TrEMBL record:
The keyword Transmembrane is annotated on this UniProt entry: no
Residue ranges annotated for the Formyl transferase C-terminal domain, each copy included: 34-144
One function term, GO molecular function aspect: methionyl-tRNA formyltransferase activity
GO cellular component, one term: cytosol
Coiled coil location: none
CDD domains cross-referenced by the UniProt entry: Met_tRNA_FMT_C (cd08704)
PANTHER family attached to this UniProt entry: METHIONYL-TRNA FORMYLTRANSFERASE, METHIONYL-TRNA FORMYLTRANSFERASE, MITOCHONDRIAL
Keyword line: Protein biosynthesis, Transferase
Lineage of producing organism: Eukaryota, Metazoa, Porifera, Demospongiae, Heteroscleromorpha
Keyword presence, Transferase: yes
Protein name listed in UniProt: Methionyl-tRNA formyltransferase
Transmembrane segments: none
Length: 173
């Protein structure tokens, strides 16, 4: 739509049908500077909103989360998510709280399904662990010990921290 509007506007200016006018600065608004903590993912949001945030924070500062575990001791593992897809299909089974994840797919092509708000699911596609290179989720999962069952209705195998906790952990590291 933007490309079509640009062509129409340039043609209108060239033909003399349009005349430029100054912007009223009184109606302008300012956005605050984006901080790294703003890129922490809040799993209470619906998956489409999270997928849009991931896209908005790419290429920098890159959306991130942290694996729950030793986060209380400041030893949680940060995970950057570069690309993701959203699924607003059927809600997950009972026991799947926002931020919980399960391994889906097969051992050959594992996928990570993260439960989000409103019963939606986020599917990370490209991730980057701290100190590692960016990689497809399949490679990331193959490089980890997958003791959990694989399958669409598998039980949650882990949990990501909330946005505030992940942001605090990122500041500490």
């Amino acid at each position: 739509m933007g490309a079509e509007l640009l062509i129409e506007t340039l043609a209108g200016l060239a033909a003399g049908r349009l005349s430029p006018r100054r912007q009223d600065d009184g109606h302008a608004t300012f956005a605050p500077r984006v901080q790294k903590a703003d890129a922490a993912l809040d799993w209470e949001l619906a998956a489409p909103a999270l997928a849009n945030r991931i896209r908005a924070f790419s290429p920098a500062p890159v959306a991130f989360t942290a694996l729950a575990g030793d986060a209380e001791e400041g030893k949680g593992e940060l995970l950057r998510i570069h690309r993701a897809a959203a699924d607003i299909g059927t809600p997950p089974a009972n026991g799947f709280t926002p931020g919980s994840f399960r391994i889906a797919g097969s051992r050959r092509a594992p996928r990570l399904a993260v439960t989000c708000g409103e019963g939606s699911t986020l599917w990370p596609l490209d991730v980057q662990a701290a100190g590692r290179r960016r990689m497809p989720i399949e490679d990331f999962l193959r490089g980890r010990v997958l003791a959990a069952p694989i399958g669409e209705q598998g039980t949650p195998v882990g949990r990501f921290l909330g946005a505030a906790q992940a942001a605090r952990l990122a500041e500490a590291q």
